[in-house]
Amino acid sequence: MDKKYLKRASSGLWLYRRKTPTLLKDKYGTEYIQRTLNTHSYHEAILKRNSINADIEMELASSKRKDSEKDKFYEYYMPWRRERLEREGEVATDGDYHPMEEADLEVVIENPEDKTNPVVYAAWKAAMTGDIPTLYYPSINELAEEWSTWAKDKKNTKYITTLNTAVKALIAVIGRDDLPMNVTSGQAQIFLDALLDTGKSANTVTHYKSKLQELWRWGLTREKAKGNNPWLNCKVEASKKKSKPLHYRNFNDSEITKILSRTEYSRLNTPTWAYPYTLHMLPRLLPFLGTRLSELALAKTEQFVDVDGRLFFEVREGKTINAQRIVPVCPIIKPLIVEAIAKAGGSPWLFPEVGNATIGANEAVNSISSKFGKLTKDFDQVEGYKTGLHSFRGHFATALEQVGCPEDIATKLAGHKQLSLTYNLYSKYKNKDELWQYVEKIHKADCLKMFIQ
Known about the structure:
Blueprint: E1 6-8, E2 14-19, H1 25-28, E3 32-36, H2 42-65, H3 69-86, H4 105-108, H5 118-129, H6 140-151, H7 157-174, H8 185-197, H9 202-221, H10 240-243, E4 247-248, H11 253-262, H12 265-268, H13 276-289, H14 293-297, E5 304-307, E6 310-315, E7 325-328, H15 334-344, H16 352-355, H17 361-375, E8 385-386, H18 391-402, H19 407-414, H20 432-439
Helix pairs in contact: 2-7, 3-5, 6-7, 7-9, 13-18, 18-19
């Protein structure tokens, strides 16, 4: 049994425990890095351990890269190699003479500290031949870090985040931060198949594949990797059984009762769970706001605005441009919003435990979603459907329909439809009354009755 970095608590839960690497001691400030894995299952603990360990290994690799020999090598290699190729046209007809071969390297190297550095001389030799020693090639994670820096003003945030998520997942599966050239087409295909086997959709896996293919292309064309692009011939081959996407269904009355009971703050507030208040509040707010999980979990307190005595939630960012909207806060949940803002204190976050999470706010949201899935894993399985925190958007849409809200207004409240200037944030609250009249009475809808008993 593989128990590396695993320890079992007296409660039976598995813990991740690892001696803090010297280069990371300033960051973590403790002798050991320890995190609860929130599971009693050994096999699930192994997967979570590998994921956490991959993150730490990447942090360690990043720390090692500061002023590393690789950085020094490419600092000199790239301009020298570029000049070498640009001056190919100056090669004389007699023999293999090249103008750069006549250069005095002692003069070319301007920094006195580098004149005796063997790495710089290795960069010169490689620039002449195009043959880079293996030890100077960046690892997968190092390549991704360099690409992310390059892509900041060329790709959107979601694209960059998805690529780095794919890199983390790849390193977790292969078990090490290897050189790109060592990843074979077979390993690449195994990785894609493994993602499908864990339940990821074919669309998500396809996105991962395309981002990794782009990373390898970028590295190969800039001579920061060698060999072939292993992702070119891989295919995302989802089974027919999983080819049809599952849709989120509404919870039935019995399930709602269980959800409200299982997310009581007193039950969630334990030493092993980091986001008890957020998970307690989400099932009580989402059905009446209809927002996506991240829109509410990552909200700032300033996004709740009082207009003429009515509270509105300004969704300023989201999955698409259509997500930018104002959502009236139903009076039935206004006390909960006020409570959350008061509890946030001086923090800008509505839920500081998420916004200030040590693992990152987005990762905390994913953890909350996973935790909710475990709390509801005993719910009925309905063919073609699934459940999750996203199901509460269905309750919101159903409730609007039950109180007679026109479809065009309902879709705008949910952030599904292209917003006109009437409803988006640029016109602010011009037609707030039209929106308010439906959300004001949404709590009377039959599908929400269990949430307010």
